[in-house]
Amino acid sequence: xxxxxxxxxxxxxxxxxxxxxxxxxxxxxxxxxxxxxxxxxxxxxxxxxxxxxxxxxxxxxxxxxxxxxxxxxxxxxxxxxxxxxxxxxxxxxxxxxxxxxxxxxxxxxxxxxxxxxxxxxxxxxxxxxxxxxxxxxxxxxxxxxxxxxxxxxxxxxxxxxxxxxxxxxxxxxxxxxxxxxxxxxxxxx
Length: 189
Fold this sequence. Notes:
Layout: H1 6-18, H2 22-46, H3 56-89, H4 91-102, E1 107-109, E2 112-116, E3 121-126, H5 138-156, H6 159-166, E4 169-174, E5 185-188
Parallel strand pairs: 3-4
Antiparallel strand pairs: 1-2, 2-3, 4-5
Helix pairs in contact: 1-3, 2-3
């Protein structure tokens, strides 16, 4: 899943639950929110806002017609929003990454380097953190760790990756920009 702002995260979480009720969403946003107002506006315009020109049969015909037409409008809107949601998921990239991990290779995703260790351990390493000082402060290391951890948690929201990492021990390692093979910080979660 791509990195999102607070507004994007809210959209993603909300749409994740709304998309499970597709036909309710289509009916509500198409027939009720679009179709009913259009039917009432057209009914009032056709009757010239005169009570004696208003007939219940005309209203029912318009409500049914725009209600059915609203289904198509709601479906089009659902597909448009769902495509935005799916573009945030990175499902194909994550599926390819899981296959890379299964073959024993290193997978680079965003600023993470992921690979399998021994004993069913998934090792997560930082890739793009450059420290200003020769020996970074503990606060800077903790900030780097929290960033890597939040990126990993975001990646776990993908159901396939969540299933892959579910029964594995996860080890997060923080390296500096030197060529050292010894992590500056290592935590098992």
